[in-house]
Fold these 2 entries.
Entry 1:
Amino acid sequence: MTRLRAIFLAPAALVMGALFLAPLAIVAAYSLLTRGAYGGLSTPWTLENWARLADPIYGVILLRTVAISAVSTLLCLVLGFPLALFISRSGSRKNVYLNLVILPFWTSFLIRTYAWMFLLRDTGLINTALLALGVIHQPLPLLYNDGAVILGLVYANLPFMVLPLYATLERLDKSVLEAAADLGAKPWAELTRVTVPLSMPGILAGSILVFIPCLGAFLTPDLLGGGKSIMIGNVVQNQFTTARDWPFGAALSLALMAVVMLLLAAVVRRKGAALL
Amino acid sequence: MKRGLALYALGAYAFLHLPLLVLALWSFNASRFTVWQGFSLGWYSAAIADTRLVEAAANSLLIAAIATAASTVIGTLCAYGLWKRNSFTLSNSLYLSLVTPEIVTGVSLLAFFQWMFRYIGVRLGMHTVILAHLAFSIAFVVIVVMARLRTFDASLEEAALDLGANEWQAFRRVTLPVILPGVIAAALLAFTVSIDDYVITSLVAGVDSETLPMVIYSMARRGVSPVMNAISTIVVAGLGLLILASERLQRR
């Protein structure tokens, strides 16, 4: 078998090596180079790009990114938990309800983000409706702020939360719940003191699965934040396009990548975590 | 509590699906403004008459078709090889490629192509976009095909080998036909991720390789327009159909 297996694996190994690992290695090398004239690269090798990560300007953006991601993750958890609970308790219709969560996830990310621009802008549907109803007299500034970015991130990443939550809730030992009810636990107490603690692996997995794409978000802050709500992803893109400071952009991307891998290692190590 | 939960779920599903449904509905609005002024297909004919859009759509289809064909073949072979015996390095690079932020994948490919091309004098264009799409869609193919292989009874293949088939014949005549629905599902999935990508594509595209998401993005940056609503509806409907087909096949 070994020969056929080797032949079968070779093309994928080649593609991953040449088009994924090698580019990352190039970026690692670039992060240690100096920015040359006209945005080119030149020696000497330096750690300066990495030192710049500590610059307060980028520190603030980094903190903003973490804060926006954390709030979005928390909102996904709060919004996703009852939904996962509902799906896990809906008997034979489970698959339909589950697919209804997954379906929008596979339909164009770009267009789903644009749909919120259509709804939120000054002359968008929400403002038009509220103005027509006389609830407001000035359009509300719904688009191009942190709130819009968080909304977009929650909307885009909710499935990542619901799926692992559903997977753990589905596997909960029903007899434990019955025992709690028999011993006089009210539904609310049963939920907060039995169901939620027992679904911790799903909560953890879901939170990290949402947090990671939020950290690396580019399109959502770009379109819904309108340049006012910048996250790390936008800075990376800017360094490689407009600013043409590739070495610094490379250091930033690798730092982002490192954080993602650390977070992921935390999930994988906990065996209970239900990764898609 | 049960009714409360159901009511909540209704709200949550509205949150997930209404934005696109409303957008689709408004693409039929006769008026350029948000107020409803009657049914019209005008924005659709405007979208089809836009040559830049049509060209970009053709580019997108071509890129997705080539990248999908390549990644389906390579990914299926890879999944089969890994199913026989796992390779730590390869499967971890595949997983890693799946969780790497798109912006990082994009800039690293850009850096890589620029570095390579300095020596061989090639420019960014359709070929770089196709290579990039191939790279990021393989992991999706491997995962879907692998899921299918896990349900495949390996003793069928052993029987074929006992009956005198060689390894290639056993794969080609016994295993592949059984996992074929999974392979097609994987191809549909690879096609959707390819045709939808903006972030990576925009970084590695050249002047001749503007894709549909790139046009949609630049239109979205300029603001909301009813033509955009029409294109969005076409794309979402098309992708939705592909995904439904893929789901069907995966469960077969």
Entry 2:
Amino acid sequence: MSTAQTTSKSAAAIDKARAEGRAALIGYLPAGYPSVEDTIAAGIALAENGADLIEIGIPYSDPVMDGQVIQAATTEALAKGFHVRQVFDVVAGITSKTDAAVLVMTYWNPVIRMGVDEFSRRLAEAGGAGLITPDLIPDEAAEWMEASDKYGLDRVFLVAPSSTTERMQRTVDASRGFVYAVSIMGVTGARTSVSTAAKDVVAAAHAAGADRVCVGLGVSNAEQVREIAAYAEGVIVGTALVAAIRDGGVDAVAALTKDLSTGLTRETGLTGEEA
Amino acid sequence: MADAPSGNADNNATEAFLQGGSLKHAPGPYFGSYGGRWMPESLIAALDELEETFDKAKDDPDFRAQVADLNKNYSGRPSLLTEAKRFSEHAGGVRVFLKREDLNHTGSHKINNVLGQALLAKRMGKTRVIAETGAGQHGVASATAAALMGLECVVYMGAEDCRRQALNVARMELLGATVIPVTSGSQTLKDAINDALRDWVANVDNTHYLLGTAAGAHPFPAMVRYFHEVIGEEARAQILDQEGRLPDAVCACIGGGSNAIGIFHGFLDDPSVKIYGFEAGGDGVETGRHAATITLGKPGVLHGARSYLMQDDDGQTIESHSISAGLDYPGVGPEHSYLSDIGRVSYEPITDAEAMEAFRLLCRTEGIIPAIESSHALAGAIKVGQRLAAEAADAGGTAQDKIVIVNLSGRGDKDVATAAEWFDLLDKNSAESEIGKEGEQL
């Protein structure tokens, strides 16, 4: 994982959590749902209630990695007239009020449309930490590698249970900030249990040299957070937070975040290898 | 073309073509700057497995023999090359020949691809295939291949399309497939592909995604073309056999572009043959309600490939519109984008009205009811024929010296309700009238 030359905001946020003897909490919110103002308020609530990193999703017409809850939210945001450029307002709105590292999660076509360099420049200007790219693999990322270096942004690629050793190595080498480990073969959505595959993916990423691996997909409660915090540097929660803002607004996001964060502390003895 | 070709890859390829390099058998993953794999990492291993299996199979005499046997004894290949003499009178008097993919089992070119991919699924030890479908042609073909080879089959189809094409849903179910109505996004073909991809990510261990067109992530564009190359190979041999010469022009319709790339491939390296792809112009490209992806789109990535794409300024996919469900797709196969940029193939829009007029004409002049998709190619052939006739006259020759081949990619039985409504042939109170009305709203 390349961390030299560029100061990684994501890495710093994860390392701060690590220094406190816990895993980092990463919360996802779709931009513009139910409104741009609500996303900013919910992002601030996330940071104030225990999230170390915040992932802001750009609503997209063809979200192939998303399950029904996030699809419904992003479809609604688009129907209400959300524009891609507004994601920079959301990022700036959160980074100006909190210390959380704010990443943007986006399917790749909106970035291509704006121009990879232009998108990166504006994201950096808004105080963003980097991008999480669910449908961009390092093999196709030449332009993004260049732009992310130029503007000092983190590039978070995904690794999956199906990733071969070679692909794991390539992806870990291309990533900066952290590596996003997909816990199961599937799309986003709350699940009652986190598959045992997650632990293996994290171990494989660590073996490939990744210092920071965060687990996402299917994580929805403090118990699952606790389970993952024992072996990964960070835990990513998405669908559960989207359901919270849908059903209870910003207050529900704050309450869920507070609850999730109780699972972050590593129980010494169980994870003796962690410093 | 909306954007000029960019990058050295394009320029080098253009140079190579101009200097006489071959355009045939392009292996992917890239066609100039198009193609590639813009896909979630979770699916890359499956794409690698498919690529490896396909590469081995196409060099394996046993596999080639299996495909050839199915093509001959199951699909009914070779399909005929029929001269359309009375139709020709309306195309400037040039001689028009129809490549009769409508005569294949299941009524379209789609069978070529599904049989090949189903064989590959078996080779990979997969027990389940999934597919997307618009009007139902590819879904029916997939269900057919799955039944033949004992595979479980699940077809994703937009909820609105399911209602509109209730009989095609019944056909798939008769063949043993499960049809899942897609209610996400715009509930159309592109969303059916999205849901199929979501299914594939979750079930990739036992499931092959039987993509129906020459689009998507590598190796799909090159692989789907491979299974359709038989169309162009047959047509080229047939016209040489029947007329002793190559055609002046070849015409096909373009949605994702699988029938087109199949017939084009046979003629790509024949510089004397002009090649035309006809996109769905819907209500007219000036109205914004169309599916003319190459004519008006801009390069972007969708469903795994970089290609021309109907998108707004934010990069959101724009919903396409066409009377033909099979052409109603906002993307296009990457090899077509490349062939457009280098100028080897000309892509032009045909409106719903032009296509339906050609539909009516072929029915009345040749006794053949074409698919509305294929009717776009027929309408284009009329325009091309008239241009060629003018050229012939300028050169002191006659239109009869010119030959145009049209890929008649499918039969129109599935389109009778839509056509009957278009031409106002139904009793206002009939059940068919209700179905037709919905069909017209495409």
